């Protein structure tokens, strides 16, 4: 059985930087830099321009990952695309990315499987676990796992939406999971979910049990009420469960691998709120310098936070061959995941 290693990492964020102050000055949100920094650690986020879709952000991230892996696009055996903000309701963003990569061009004809993962903040780790299993069983040699989000289009950028709107940003991160005979790679993973809290962090643009599934006006034109158009979040419940589940998932992995915290060189926690991560780190007794973060610059990019961090850490020379890393995520569903990787 081959090992499944991460052979390449890449990321892309849009150019438009929106600072906390600009949420107020550009969009008129009644908020302050102080409130957002104190509660979340976020200083700025990136917003994609109108006309840019989720698969557009994913494309340069995947190209960078392929280049760092030293692979050609035709080496890709499978695409796994994690997002809660797909280009369209269906089909998934994976097939749009496949075409944008040129894999369906007449002279290429590389019709690899494309799988979309709908697991929000833990979507990347669900994708990574799936890719790892595919590679380890010998079915595929190189799997693209990309997490990408365009949140800015679906944020209530007004004072009534400020609790959610101030948290999220746009971006994409990608890794290539490759077969290797070397003694390294994804050592173990853990996935979990608690559907009792499915509604606590949700966006119910439609309800398929209703006729019509989107309320319509007298002319039959769909009318989504604000309460359904925007994400609903029970912030404190999310915070409390995030802390418990992230610690639990990490502890499970450490026990499985018979590791102590000292064995791990770097930790990559999903970037939902710096205060959640600092709380988890304190509970575990982790030193600050082992915790990579970038939430201050990008906010919460949901499925993209972990692959963006991996790509940045590798680019900065902080993540090097031979290091042991641990990663963990928690989010809507509730769903969560963790993985231990020998880089
Ligand atoms: O991947 C999972 C994604 N989500 C999370 O991880 C979120 C987890 N939860 C959190 O991070 C925190 O619950 C928040 C940062 C979202 C909110 O912090 P909080 O301490 O729970 O605040 P709150 O929602 O209880 O709101 C306290 C006050 C309210 O005002 P009143 O009713 O006391 O007058 C809010 O309206 O703060 C107000 N508020 C804001 N004020 C300025 C909420 N958002 C903002 C804002 N700027 N952006």
Features:
single chain, 343 residues, alpha/beta, Peroxisomal Thiolase, Chain A, domain 1, five-stranded mixed β-sheet, 11 helices, 24% strand, binds oxa(dethia)-CoA
So what's the CATH class of the largest domain? Alpha Beta
Task: Please tell me the total number of domains.
Answer: 2
Determine Rg (CA atoms, Å): 20 Å
Largest sheet, described in full? 5 strands, mixed
DSSP summary, beta strand count: 14
User: Can you tell me the overall shape?
Assistant: globular
The H/E string reads EEHHEHEHEHEHEEEHEHEHEHHEE
Strand content: 15-25%
N-to-C terminal Cα separation, in Å?
18 Å
Describe what is shown at a glance:
The chain is of the alpha/beta class. Helix content is 31%, strand content 24%.
Write structural notes for this entry.
Helix content is 31%, strand content 24%. The protein is α/β, with parallel strands linked by helices and 343 residues long. The protein folds into two domains: 3-183, Thiolase/Chalcone synthase (Peroxisomal Thiolase, Chain A, domain 1, 3-Layer(aba) Sandwich); 186-199 and 230-342, Peroxisomal Thiolase, Chain A, domain 1 (3-Layer(aba) Sandwich). The strands form four sheets. A five-stranded mixed β-sheet has the order 1-7-6-4-5, sandwiched between helices. Strands 8-14-13-11-12 form a five-stranded mixed β-sheet, with helices on both faces. The chain is built from eleven helices and 14 strands. It binds oxa(dethia)-CoA. Oxa(dethia)-CoA binds next to α2, α6 and α8.
């Amino acid at each position: 059985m081959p090992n499944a290693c991460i052979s390449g990492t890449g990321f892309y964020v849009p150019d438009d930087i929106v600072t906390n102050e600009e949420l107020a000055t550009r969009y008129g949100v009644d908020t302050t830099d102080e409130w957002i920094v104190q509660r979340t650690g976020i200083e700025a986020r990136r917003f994609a321009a109108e006309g840019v879709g989720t698969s557009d952000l994913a494309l340069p991230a995947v190209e960078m990952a392929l280049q760092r892996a030293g692979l050609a696009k035709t080496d890709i055996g499978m695409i796994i695309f994690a997002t809660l903000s797909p280009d369209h309701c269906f089909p998934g963003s994976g097939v749009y990315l496949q075409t944008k990569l040129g894999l369906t061009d007449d002279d290429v004809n590389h019709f690899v499987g494309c799988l979309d993962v709908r697991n929000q903040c833990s979507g990347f780790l669900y994708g990574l676990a799936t890719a790892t299993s595919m590679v380890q069983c010998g079915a595929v040699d190189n799997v693209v796992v990309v997490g990408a989000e365009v949140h800015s289009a679906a944020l209530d950028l007004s004072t009534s939406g400020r609790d959610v709107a101030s948290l999220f940003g746009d971006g994409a991160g990608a890794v290539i999971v490759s077969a290797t005979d070397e003694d390294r790679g994804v050592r173990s993973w853990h996935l979990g979910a608690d559907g009792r809290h499915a509604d606590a962090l949700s966006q119910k643009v439609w309800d398929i049990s209703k006729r019509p599934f989107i309320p319509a006006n007298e002319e039959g034109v769909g009318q989504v009420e604000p309460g359904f158009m925007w994400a609903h979040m029970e912030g404190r419940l999310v915070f409390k469960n995030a802390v418990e589940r992230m610690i639990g998932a990490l502890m499970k992995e450490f026990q499985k691998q018979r590791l102590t915290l000292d064995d791990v060189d770097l930790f990559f926690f999903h970037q939902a709120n710096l205060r959640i991560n600092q709380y988890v780190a304190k509970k575990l007794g982790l030193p600050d310098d082992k915790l990579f973060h970038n939430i201050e610059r990008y906010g919460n990019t949901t499925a993209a936070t972990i692959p963006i961090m991996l790509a940045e850490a590798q680019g900065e020379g902080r993540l090097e061959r031979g290091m042991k890393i641990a990663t963990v995520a928690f989010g809507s569903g509730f769903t969560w995941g963790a993985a231990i990787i020998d880089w």
